Amino acid sequence: MTTNPPIIHAIIATWNSRKWIRQAIESLQNSTIPASIIVVDNASSDDTVTIIRGLPGDIELFQMPENLGFAGANNYGLRHALDHGAEYIVLLNQDAKVAPEMIAGIIRFFEQHSDYGIISPLHMNYEGAVVDPVFLSFVSENTSIASDALTQKIREIYEVPFINAAVWLISRALVEKIGGFDPIFFMYGEDQDYCHRARFHGFKIGVAPKAMAYHWHDGGKHLQKKSFREQCLRQCAQILYRLKRPDHIFILSLFGILGTWVQRALIVLAYGDFRQFAAMIVAVVKVVPKIPSVKRHHAECRRSGRLWL
Fold first, then answer.
1. What structural domains does the chain harbor?
2. Model confidence, pTM
3. Buried (b) or exposed (e) across 147-156, using 16+ Cβ within 10 A?
4. Which of 50, 110, 187, 212 has the greatest CB tally within 10 Å of its CB?
């Protein structure tokens, strides 16, 4: 007696992704376990859409009239996947690709461990030569990963508090319980927020090092080397993320962040980094008007349901 394979949907949110999108989609098409591919394009101005339309296979392409950001585009895909019976969902960055066995390996673990809501593979760099150093920084809290690697005793899964959303497999149960990404984050911070919400509602987050994916990433650049706009976005995201943590009392978080921000601002000024200080000022100016909305979203995230889907 054979059982039907699980229904898997893979979502890629794109924006001017001509450099990577072909490889991302082809890696999903070469997977040993099939996944229905959903691409949500955030009003790309390059030939991303033309490339996607020229690829073989069944690819569902949704073109947004404007850039909804990472959260908004993925939420559109998540809603579509759930409405079409998805049991598991792959979230794949436009600049990432998966190994053929990755999905099958993680699904096998998921089906035996329903307490996990998010599982990430090992992130190699795009060429597959080394482990992505940014990924290593995210999993460093679980010190047993490094010691097990050195002693060649790698386990199937390692629980971590957070992993970046370059390549995630998530369960339907998780999305039904906590919903989608919070659209209050346009870029950056939404995956940190999502992981905290998952853990708050009783789901574990894991890294499966025997499953492999590849990620092109310049996010390891020091903050001072990033554009001023990107510095502002990251500063905004960090303030919003800390305010929104569902396991914290909102008013205490607000006062705590204020104290931390003043302390950091004084340190930045002492080092003469006026550019970063300006980015911090801009971030505060942008976040302050959103505080009532953030407080409401904080309260909503403590409840269960298909938020923002």
1. 8-215 (3.90.550.10), 223-301 (no CATH)
2. 0.93
3. eeeeeeeeee
4. 110
